[in-house]
Design brief:
Shape: elongated
Strand content: over 45%
Structural class: mainly beta
CATH class of the largest domain: Mainly Beta
CATH architecture of the largest domain: 7 Propeller
Distance between the termini: 103 Å
CATH topology of the largest domain: Methylamine Dehydrogenase, Chain H
Amino acid sequence: MIRYISLLLFIGLVFWSCEEDAEPEPDTTPPTVSISSHSSGQSVNEIITITVTTQDNEGISKVEFFIDDSLVLTDTESPYQYEWNTTQYEDGEHIVKVISYDNSDNSTTSQPIMLIINNHLNANHWFVEIENLFQLDGFARDISILGNTAFVAAGQYGIQVWDLQSQAMSAGFTGYEEGGSFLEFDDLAIIGRDEINKLIFVSEPEKDVKIFHYDGGDSIFYRNTIMSAKTKGFVSFPSATDQFIMYTADNDDGMKWHFLNLDTTNIFDIEFIEWTPYGGGEIYTPGKPQGIDPDGESYIAMAVDQLGVELYSIDSLGADPSLVGRVDTDGNAVQVKLVSDGVFASCKNGGAYYVPFLSFTSNTNESYNFARSFDVNHISIFENIAILSLEVDGIALYDITDKRAPIFKGLFNIGYVFKTEIWGQKVIACTQGGLSILSIQEN
């Protein structure tokens, strides 16, 4: 019996010893890491300090710093920093990232950021001068310019009409009369003008396109609504007096177009005036249309969100469009701009693209991405200049003499910018502060 108890004690000691000698679980949890000193799109010069925030459950062994994918420093002690002499690099965009390693050699790569070196601004970059600022009630969300008159979608403050030469607002409408009631605008985001038929078109988020008659006085007259509540963008062309055609980017249906005629009826001596669709159609797209730009002659381009850009051909104004092709883009395509030989696209989380017409027919998906680290909301083109609207970051300028290789020419923080339009030799920026009149000086 004593021997049996001794044997059990011996076996228990062996098992206890094995448990004591068992190896711990390996550490497989990677560290967290981010660049905390700068944000993507920021302009820098001279010598800057890039600072990293990194943590791990077992401790950090080292942090590697990369400029344009080249290792420039390995830092083994906190605080993890790199003194970057930007004068040793060319002006323009540079990608910065870091890799953090813990004591078990687990690693995490940070989200890269794009920094813009501006050491030789006078030599290489262009200048933007704010010549004037028209302060609006409300935000300048959108603008349509005819001659020296600007029609502005001012958000909750409705429609504003400005004389650009006298720098004065000639009319403002926060709402309109319908059926004996005054209805206020909620948030006008899109506006257009038909000078021949004396019409103003407006649209609010998730609402139809409204038509108003405006002949330059101090009153607007509501006519009716057209298209659909999912209209994200529209462009109209007067085809004759008392007739126009409108193309829309419809977030539900795809690309939609209608001919509309002026229809006047008299019932019990009361005149009813509205615009009635009599022809048109729609083409379904699997994408979610966001913006549209037809030239009224040969092509219609449409931004279709995650699916990129679609191009349609038309034989003439009002002819049924035919899909030429689709080119995918990184990020979400939100606006397009037709030029003589292709399409520029604005993308959220993807920068900007130039897509030649040939790419839509050759199935090569050929496109040229630039401004990759920006969220681009809109692009205007003026001669060899691309003006990118970047919302909170202002505007960026690119030299597009070679559209396949745009050259960065400066980032200009002029406030929160929704879009820009060209007025003669000037640029008008729609901002949260109003309308900024800009001039661009090239070096």
